[in-house]
Design goal:
The protein is of the alpha/beta class. It has a single domain, classed as Bacterial extracellular solute-binding protein, family 7 (D-Maltodextrin-Binding Protein, domain 2), CATH 3.40.190.170. About 50% of the residues lie in helices and about 20% in strands. The protein contains twelve helices and ten strands. Strands 1, 2, 3, 4, 5, 6, 7, 8, 9 and 10 form a ten-stranded mixed sheet that branches. Helix 2 packs antiparallel against helix 10 and helix 6 crosses helix 11.
């Protein structure tokens, strides 16, 4: 074989090998499925899509995330189990508190009082972020970030006297969700009566006067479900409604340290960006209510701190069992409560 032919053959072989290596590296990527309850086109679905793009760009295409909105992979409780098992890779949704009582910290009353304290507690290193990450970590899940839905409040079908006074007695019955022991204790301390009603019966319950109000959601949620029967909205800032962005820990462990960092950074960017947007979304919802003629009650920082002070001092000891003493101690330390 002539020297020229050999060279040509070797060049061809090198090209083929190079091509094969190129093909191999193009396929050496991780494809992850992310489930969310959010509807296509909603802020949540858009945030999940932006997160996926950010991860793909940051990992130079090594990690691709496909977002499945609107519960396409199953309802959130099923998906929670599936992410534990690794059948679904990631999710942005609620965490199952029935599974671990420490997770009730996610709606614990007055764990924070405003957007700044909520953001601090819900980003990496923050008390609530670390408590949740620790609890779900034992189930084979790794927490990456939080998508905030908004600050909680209570909607009433009638007027509310002196809502800023935690010591007033009121002849008003407020629905708490079945299992909502935390908020039952809170409302009773704030002078309200409480009742548990299934979600499906709540609208009729408020309409017929079986209950006078409901707590546990945001102003936006009240507009979606109770628009025409809400006459008073009290922005208690009692909890911060969130969806949690987490990944199966084994899948996470299979990524390189650099790609793990990209994933966490992108999730934390989503968290911080949403905190800026959620404040505006809440303000917009409150303004929509005002324009509809709903009496909207908001509290200044001092009033919120005063309500939170009463809750932390007098209500927390009664509901400490809901999250367990070690978690309670972490929470107390994080808010500087004695």
């Amino acid at each position: 074989m002539s020297h020229h032919n050999l060279l040509r053959r070797l060049t061809g072989l090198a090209c083929a090998l190079g091509l094969a290596a190129g093909v191999a590296s193009a396929f050496a990527q991780t494809s992850l499925r992310l489930s969310t309850l959010k509807m296509p086109g909603s802020d949540g679905a858009k945030a999940a899509e932006a997160f996926a793009k950010e991860v793909e760009a940051g990992t130079q295409g090594r990690v691709k995330i496909k977002v499945y909105p609107a519960n396409q992979l199953g309802d959130w409780a099923e998906v929670y189990e599936q992410v534990m098992q690794g059948a679904v890779d990631m999710a942005m949704q609620p965490v199952a508190t029935s599974d671990d009582k420490r997770l009730a910290v996610t709606w614990f009353p007055y764990a924070f009082t405003d957007y700044d304290s909520a953001e601090k507690a819900l980003t990496t290193g923050g008390a609530v972020f670390e408590i949740v990450n620790g609890a779900i970590g034992e189930k084979g899940l790794t927490l990456l970030g939080v998508f905030g839905e908004g600050m909680g409040g209570a909607g009433f079908a009638k007027p509310v006297d002196n809502p800023a006074d935690p010591n007033a007695k009121r002849n008003l019955k407020v629905r708490v969700w079945p299992g909502g022991t935390t908020h039952r204790a809170l409302l009773e301390r704030f002078g309200y009566n409480t009742a548990t009603l299934p979600w499906a019966e709540l609208y009729t319950g408020m309409q017929t006067g079986l209950v006078d109000g409901q707590i546990g959601g945001t102003a936006n949620m009240a507009l979606e479900s109770f628009k025409d029967i809400t006459k008073t909205w009290v922005q208690f800032n009692d909890h911060f409604e969130s969806d949690w962005l987490f990944i199966n820990s084994k899948k996470h462990a299979g990524l390189s340290a650099a790609d793990k960092k990209v994933l966490l950074d992108a999730a934390q960017k989503l968290t911080r960006q949403r905190f800026q947007d959620v404040k505006k979304a809440d303000e917009k919802a409150l303004q929509t209510m005002r324009d509809m003629g709903v009496k909207v009650v908001t509290f200044n920082k001092q009033q919120l701190e005063s309500l939170a002070g009463v809750a932390r001092k007098e209500v927390w000891p009664k509901i400490a069992d809901e999250i367990g003493q070690p978690t309670m101690n972490k929470l107390r330390a994080s808010v500087g409560a004695q």
